[in-house]
Amino acid sequence: MGTVTSEPTTADTPPPDGGHDLSSPRRRGRGRPRLARLYGPLLAFLVTSGAFCAAWVARGTFPFGNTGRAINDQANQYVPFHRALWDLVHGQAAGDLLFTWRGGFGQQFLSDYHTYLGNPFSWLVVLVPRAHVDLAVFAITPITMGTAAALMTVYLGKLQPGPWWQRGVLGACYGLCGWALSDASYIPMWLWGLVALPMLGIAVEWCLEGRRWPGAALLVALAWYGNFYTAMMATMAACVLLAIRLITRDTTDGVRGKLRALWRAATAAATGILLTLPLLLPSFLSSGSAQPTQAAAFDPVRIEIFLAGMLPATHLWGGRPRLYVASLGLILAGTFLFNTAIAKKTRLVWAAATLLVVVSFQFPPTQYAWHGLAVPNGNPYREAFVFSGMVVIVAWLALAHRPRPLHLALVAALLVAATFALRHTDDFGGWTWPAVLGGGAVSLLALVLLALGEKRRALLPVAAVLMVGVVFAESTVAAAGADARRARERWAKPTATTSKSINEHFDAVRGVEGWPAYRTDSGAPQTSYNDALALRSEGPQYYSSYLPEATYRALEPLGYGFKNDGRTFFGADNPALDAIFSIGARVRPGTAPGTWTGSKFPAPPLVTVRSGPYTSPNPAGSVYARQENVLGATVYEVPPVTRGGGADEQTYAATCRPGSEAYWYSPALYGTLLAGGTERPLEDQMTGVVPLGRVPASGRVDVTVKTRTEGATAGEHPLGCLDRAALDQTIAHLKATGATRVKAGGHTIEATLPQGATGTAVFAMTDVPGWQCSAPVRDFHGLVSLPLSPGTDKVSCTFTPKGFTPGLAAATLALLALASVTVTGLRRRRAGS
Q1: What pLDDT, on a 0 to 100 scale, did the predictor assign at position 33?
Q2: From CA 789, how far away is CA 259, in angstroms rounded?
C-alpha cells in the first residue's frame, strides 16, 4: 500500500481504495466537504465526554447523585481558585490578576492563575452563578478530554488520510487514556496537556508543510498558556514527533527542506513560548521563592507493575503509571510492526521512538527531563499521556493500512496472555479482565467485520457501531472503576463543595465583612484549605505551590498551623494574632448543626505606626514572646510548666492569673488534648495556637495530651495566658496612632497617617517578593515596614510580580515578530494573485 503519505493531507481527503469513508464528498454532494471535516472530531468529542459522564452516572456522583465529586486538591485548590476567578471577573475580588488580599494575608495571584486557572475552559465558570462554580469546574474535565480527542482526530488525519469515523474512534481512545481517567481527571489545568499534544502535533505538520507559521506559533502559545508543566511534556513529545516525521517523510528538496522545516518549528516554538512569558517568567521566579518541599527521589516501579499499567481499565494504587488505552487501540497498535503495507523504515522508526519514550519513564535522568529537571511531588509518571498518544498514533497508521485479521487475532491473544501473566501484580485492576476479554473480543470482531466490509459493504455500519460502542463502554467502566478504586484511598475521599452549611458559612462572612477597614477570618472548621478564596474572607488560610518562603517564615513562628511542608496555612482563633493582622471579624459555628455566626471586635488598621523596637520579657523561645515582639506590647503570662505522665499520655500543669485566657501550642504532638473537661484534636504542625478557656479562680491550668507521636513533648513553654485588658489597651493604642485611612487597590495599598507620625509604618502583610513602596522596605518580623521621615503623612506600596515587566517586553517583541511575518505572508499572497 506504500508508506505514510508525504503529501499534505486534510481530514476529508478520501482514503486509499477500499477505505469506505462514509463522509466522502462523492457521496455527500457539493458543499459538504468542509462540514465533513467536523464529523470525526465531533464523534471523538461526544464519545469521550459521554463516556466520562456516563461513569459519573454509574457511580452516582454529583451532579448525578449524592456522592461528593471533589477529591484532594480539586476541593482544596481548584474549586476555590475558580471561585476567585468568578469574583475577579464580576468585580467582587479583593485584589486583581496580579495580587489577592484574600488568603495568606496578601499573596501574588498571577502565578496561581497561570498554574491553576490556565485551562481556557476555566473561563466557563464565569458564565454560571457563583453558587454553581463547582459544577462548572467538574464540567471542565469532560469538555477538555473531548477537545483533546477531537484534536487528536484532526492530527491523525494529517498523518494519514482515512475514514472520519475510524479516526474519531481512535481519537476517543486517546481522550480516554488511563492517564486522563486515573491521574488527571480531577485536575483541570493538567488536562490541558492532553489537548496540547495533538495541538502541537498539528503545528509540527504545518511546519513540515512550510505553511501557517503564525498559526503554529499561536498553537504553541495556546499550549503553554494552558499549563506550562504538561505543556513542557507535550512540547518534548512534539520534538519526538518532529524527529520521526523528518526521518520518515519523503521530501523533494532533501536535507535542505528538512533543515527549513526544523528552523520553522524551532522559531515557532520559541515565538509561542515567548508570547506566554508574562505568565511563564513570574511563575518560574515564584516557584524559586516558594516554600521548599521535601519531594522524594524518583523510585521506578517494578517492571511487572509498569507493564500492568498498559493493560486496559487498570487502576493501580498510589503513584503508579497509568499508560493504557482502550483494547481497540492496543490491538491495532500491536499489529503495526506486522503491517507490510507500511514502509519498513516508517514502522521501525515509529516503533523505536514509542519504545524509547516508554523506557525513558523508568530512568531517573530522563524522568527528570520530562518533569523539567525537578523531582515530581506526587505521582512521578505525569507524562504518561505522551505514551498513550503515541500508541494511538501507531494504532491509526495500522488501521489506515488495513491490518490482516490473522495479525489482529494474534495480538489479541498476546494481550490475553500478558494479562494472565500479570494477574498477580500488586493491586491488579478488577476491571482489567472484563476489558481484555469482553472489550478485546468485541474489538477483534469489529475489526474483522471492517476487513470483510471491503467486499460486503453492509458489514461496515455494524463494524462502526461495534467500534464506537466498545470504546464507549470499556472507557465508561474504566473511568467508573478508577473513580471507585481511588475513592478508597484516604487522600482521595470525595468531599462536598456545595451544601447548606457552606452557603450559610459564606453568608455569615458577608454579614461581618469590612475590608479594607479590617480583615474577616472565615474561622474553623474549614471546608477547604483555601476558604479565604472560596468564602471571600481575608484570613491566613491559603494553599498554593507558590506560597512564598517569606510567608512561611513570617507566620510559622507566630503559631499558625500549616501543612504540605509549609505551602498550606490554616487559621488560629487567637486575639493577639488577630490584632497583629488587623482581623476585626470572625465566623464561628452556630449552636445548630450547619449554621454559622459572625462577630465583630476592635482591630488595629492595616497600617500601624511603631515608635521603636520592642523585646518581650517572656521566654524568647515561646510562640507567645514572638507574638508580643510583633505586637509591640506585653500581653501574655508564660508560666513554667510541670510535665508528668508517660510517653502515650502526657500531663502538664501550670499556674496563671485567674480570669486570664489560656492558650496552648504544641506543634510536635499528634493526638488528643484534654483541658477543662473539653477534648480537642491535636494534629502536630497543622494545629496552631488553640484556646483552652478562662483560667479558673484557683489559677491552676491542667492539660492532658494523649499522643501517638513517639518521643515528642509539648516543649518548654506550650502554655500562655492572655491578659485581655492589656491586649485591649494595646489595640486602642495602635488604632489611635495608626493609619486614619487605608485604601487597598487590586495590587496597591495606601495609608494616610496622623500628623507628626514618627518611627516605622508596619503593614499587616507578609514581606513577599514584589513589593515596591514609597520608602525602602524593611523587614519587620516577616512583615512589610517603612521608615517614616519627618513630615510623612502618607505611605503606599505597589505589588508587581517579579519577572512580569521583562516578560511583557519579551512577549511584545514576539508579538511584533508574529505580526510582521503574518503581514509579509499576506502581501506575498496578494502579489502572487
Answers
A1: 67
A2: 63
Q: What is the DSSP letter of 548?
A: B
Does pTM top 0.85 for this prediction? yes
Residue of 186, 267, 278, 183 lying closest to 233 (CA atoms) = 183
Our CA dihedral for 140, 143, 146, 150, rounded to 10 degrees, sits at: -120
Q: Which residues of 223-248 are buried (b: 16+ CB within 10 A; e: fewer)?
A: bbbbbbbbbbbbbbbbebbbebbbeb
Q: What is the largest CA-CA distance in the chain?
A: 99
Rounded Cα–Cα distance for residues 425 and 676 (Å): 52
pLDDT mean across residues, the chain = 91
pLDDT at 17 over 80: no
The answer, yes or no, to whether residue 39 has pLDDT greater than 60, is yes
- CA dist 151 and 159 (Å) reads 13
Best CA proximity match to 47, nearest among 403, 438, 326, 436:
326
pLDDT at position 833, please?
62
Contacts of 515 (CB under 8 A, 6+ apart): 94, 101, 538, 744
Mean of pLDDT values over 572-598: 95
Confirm if 47 and 178 have CB atoms less than 8 A apart: no
Instruction: Tell the burial category of 302 from Cβ atoms under 10 Å away from its Cβ (0-12, 13-18, 19+).
Output: exposed
What are the beta bridge partners of residue 521? 586
Q: Is the CB of residue 114 less than 8 Å from the CB of residue 279?
A: yes
Give tens-digit pLDDT for 495-550. Answer: 888 889 999 999 999 999 999 999 999 999 998 999 999 999 999 999 999 999 99
- Give 42: exposed, middle or buried? Use CB within 10 Å, 0-12, 13-18, 19+: middle
Name the band, by pLDDT with cuts 50, 70 and 90, for residue 211. Answer: confident
What separation in angstroms does the CA of 14 have from each of 7, 22, 33, 69, 705?
13, 10, 10, 44, 76
Is residue 26's pLDDT more than 50?
A: no
> In whole angstroms, what is the distance from residue 656 CA to residue 721 CA?
6
Contact between 124 and 168 under an 8 Å Cβ cutoff? The reply is: no
Decide the pairing of beta strands 649-655 and 642-645. Answer: antiparallel
List C-alpha distances in Å: 7 to 158, 195, 397: 9, 25, 15
At 64, is the secondary structure helix, strand, or coil? coil
| Euclidean distance between CA atoms 100 and 93, whole angstroms | 8
Place of cell 516543649: 715
* DSSP symbol at 290: B
The 583-589 sheet, strands edge to edge:
519-521, 583-589, 596-600
> Comparing 782 with 35, which gets the higher pLDDT?
782
Distance between CA atoms of residues 502 and 132, nearest Å? 12
3 state DSSP class of 80: helix
Q: Over 303-328, what HEC string results?
A: HHHHHHCCCCCCCCCCCCCCCCCCHH
Provide the grid cell at 382.
505525569
Q: Closest by alpha carbon to 468, among 441, 450, 444, 443?
A: 443
Q: Rounded to 5, what percent of the chain is helix, strand, coil?
A: 50, 15, 35
Of the pLDDT bands very low, low, confident and very high (cuts 50, 70, 90), residue 764 is very high
The Cα–Cα gap between 6 and 765 comes to 61
Reported as half-sphere exposure (CB side, CA atoms, 13 A), residue 208 has a value of 26
Q: How far is CA 676 from the centre of its chain?
A: 43
Determine contact, residues 527/512, Cβ cutoff 8 Å.
Answer: no
- Cell readout for 1 is 500500500
Burial class (CB in 10 A: 0-12, 13-18, 19+), 292: exposed
| Alpha-carbon gap, residue 663 to 502, rounded angstroms | 28
User: Mind giving me the DSSP string for 455-468?
Assistant: T-TTHHHHHHHHHH
